[in-house]
Amino acid sequence: MRDLTIVIKGAGEMATGVAHRLHKSGFGRIIMTDIPAPLCVRRTVSFCEAVYEGRMTVEGVTAELATLSGDAPDVWNRGHVAVLIDPSWSVVATLKPDVVVDAIMAKRNIGTKKDEAPLVIGIGPGFKAPDDVHIVVESNRGHDLGRTLYEGAAEPYTGMPGQMMSYTKERVLRAPVAGMVKHARKLGETVAKGDLILSVGGIPVTAPFDGILRGLIREISVDEGEKVGDVDPRARQEYCYTISEKARSIGGGVLEAIMHVYNRPAQR
Description:
Layout: E1 5-9, H1 13-24, E2 29-34, H2 50-53, E3 55-58, E4 61-66, H3 72-77, E5 81-85, H4 90-95, E6 99-102, E7 119-123, E8 128-129, E9 135-137, E10 148-149, E11 152-153, E12 172-174, E13 179-183, E14 190-191, E15 196-200, E16 203-206, E17 211-216, E18 221-222, E19 227-232, H5 245-262
Parallel strand pairs: 1-2, 1-6, 2-5, 4-5, 6-7, 7-9
Antiparallel strand pairs: 3-4, 8-11, 9-10, 12-19, 13-15, 13-18, 14-17, 15-16, 17-19
Helix pairs in contact: 1-5
C-alpha cells in the first residue's frame, strides 16, 4: 500500500485536500500536476502555490515543485508531495501510476480515461462509473458529499457555491472584465461591505458584505468571469489556513476508494 504511486490531476484546494489526506494516511508516492500559472483562489491551503514559491506547506504536509517527473523520487524521499507543471498529464504515461485521481474540478471530464491506471477516480460532475472512470467521488455539498460511486455519476453542477450564513453566490468574487489583477487587500484580512478588495483591468471589485478574505487569486491576468476572491462571513481567520470540510470529505472518499481496491485480503 505504501508503495502505490498516485498521480493527482490538479493541485488546487480540493486536490490538496485529497493529497493531504492520502499523505497523512501513509501514502508517500504522490505527484500532483497543474498548469504553469495556477488560478487558485484559496492559496493558503493549496499545494499549487509550490509552482510559484517552490514549496508549500498545508497543515504540516509540504509539497515541493519537481522540475521533471524523474525528480519525484527525491521529493518523496524528503517526505514531501511532488508538484509538477504538466498540463497535458504526460507524467501518467511516464510513471505508469497505480492510481490516477482527476481532481481538476472542471465540472466536466476534459480527457481522463479509465485505462490510465489500474484505478482511476473522478471527482465531481463529468464522470460516470464504470464507463469513464472506475470510481466517482461526489463533490456536491449535502448528504452525499464524499460518497464513493461504483456505478453512476456525481450530481450535476449547480453553479451555486455552498451556503455560509445565508450567503451563496455573492460570497464569490469574479472578474468583471478580462485583465490583470491588482490587490488592494491581503489574504486573511477582515473586510467590511464596500471595501475595495482588488481591481481587474482597473475595474474595482468590492466586498459584498462584512467578513474575512478567505481567498484571493494572485496578481495575474484573468479572463472575464474568473473567480478571483472569496469572502467568508463567518470571519474566522483560522478558516483561511485550514482545509475545508468539503475538501476533507472528498479526500476521505478518495482514500476509501483506494482502500476498497488495494486493501483487500488475498484470494485463496
